[in-house]
Amino acid sequence: MNIRTHNSLLTMITKVQIDQFFSSPVALAGVSRNPKKFGYMAFQTMLEKNRYDLYPVNPNAGEIAGKKCYPDVASLPSQVQSILIMTGKQQTAEVVKQALAKGLKNIWLQQGSENPEALKFAREAGVNLIHGKCIMMFAEPRGIHKFHRSIVKFFGGLPK
Asked: What is the DSSP code (8-state) at residue 129?
């Protein structure tokens, strides 16, 4: 068993945490303009569901998929209380710091984006922290992610 698998197994996330995360508008840091990148696919999947109030964050884009893009976390509207962080590991801790400074209550570190420093900041702040889980397992995915979700669900990997 590799470290990533081991850490994911130790990350116990509840349905209450997931519901709390989605109970407010969601910022997505690390949304890409490139349709082949995960950051774009996750954003597009959630956007298509039309049940999420989404706020993409990308300092290099004015808009993505027709939605206004925010240059940083500090620029987000006050009603945003949740953030999905899909940045590279080297950027994640800084985005977590920005989210905490903004007063966000729910932080989801996309699988592969987390690092020890970011986890430490979020844990010490006492926010609703979700990590070690892929957003695509919870955002009603399509395609291969839908198949993957059904396998994860079958084997009891989704919170109840």
From this structure: E
Q: What residues contact residue 62 under an 8 Å CB cut-off, 6+ apart? A: 68, 69
Backbone angles phi, psi at 98, to 5 degrees: -65, -40
Please report, as a single letter, which amino acid is at residue 87: T
Q: Are 136 and 158 in contact (CB under 8 A)?
A: no
What tens digit of pLDDT does each residue of 34-90 get? 999 999 999 998 998 777 899 999 999 999 999 999 999 999 999 999 999 999 999
User: Global pTM?
Assistant: 0.83
Helix (H) / strand (E) element for 15: namely helix 15-21
- Report the distance separating Cα 14 and Cα 77, nearest Å: 27
